[in-house]
């Protein structure tokens, strides 16, 4: 039996709606959208239009043309960061960021003298809002925040952040929060939101998205064929084509539409409730095992379904090995956020991340707890 508890990396299994939508595209549609007038190309374009409308509606984006499809959360963040920041700009970010933020910023620091300030976080994963307020100045071009930590699941308060950063452009990394907690780009005053579609949106791998508030212009990350304005060698200025060159991942977009239908049918609150129950069961079980260290505050009412642990006296890789042998899929080691690991004291050893999903069953949790108990008692 395989027990999948790595939903923060990507959700699995996928709902039937996702699988059926991908299969339908591959068996009945299959055309290249916007690249022809034949019925299969037109049907593919119609499907993308529907997905764009639905996803923009999901985050209350005013204009679905400002919703850009990308290859993953990383590409979304690269488009926002490399597309917005120019020579010597000042940018503020946090110690909880993923490398898909830190690495483009490192590149810009080295090649364009971009000035990067990193605001510290507490061990519990809360951002230091006083330092944030003091670090943002009139010359700050953008503030980049990881909305929900992929390491310890803490969620940052968007209203307090907006209050601290004033009118600065907010780039929100919502890879872990989209689908897990409601997001309203207008009410939450998010200027650019970047996310993956293969985690809590139940899409398949190879798809991400960005929503860009009106008035913000980015330099495209890619230039090329868009299926529009084919008579010109110049990149079109119209959205979404400006930022979406090349054949899109239409099977992935079909899968996303299926995932969104599943969320609509099941209810986001119900999905969150089930994940919460699994998280509580796991944490309560772990608390009963001597030698298990739990980081952060996974039972905080605002936390994501992400639990980070270590077992005293046992290397994380060894815990991972035993879990693999027992058919349990968890993430072990360092999880693409070195500064976050330093903040909570799990650098460079790393830790074990357990992330239950909507399809996690009680029997999976019991088996996980038994295996961890046996590892801790050795
Ligand atoms: C907070 C955060 N940002 C960015 C990413 C990158 O997303 P992707 O793997 O879709 O490129 C992830 C993926 O785990 C993440 O958790």
Global Rg:
21 Å
Question: How confident is the prediction overall: mean pLDDT?
Answer: 96
The neighbouring-strand order within the major sheet is 2-8-7-6-5-3-4
General form: globular
Question: What share of residues are in beta strands?
Answer: 5-15%
Give the arrangement of secondary structure elements.
Blueprint: E1 3-4, H1 16-29, H2 39-58, E2 67-70, H3 73-84, E3 90-94, H4 99-112, E4 115-119, H5 129-135, E5 140-146, H6 158-165, E6 169-173, E7 192-196, E8 208-212, H7 250-266, H8 268-287, E9 292-295, E10 307-311, H9 316-325, E11 328-329, E12 331-333, H10 338-344, E13 351-354, H11 362-376
Parallel strand pairs: 1-11, 3-4, 3-5, 5-6, 6-7
Antiparallel strand pairs: 2-8, 7-8, 9-10, 10-13, 12-13
Helix pairs in contact: 1-7, 2-7, 3-4, 5-6, 8-11
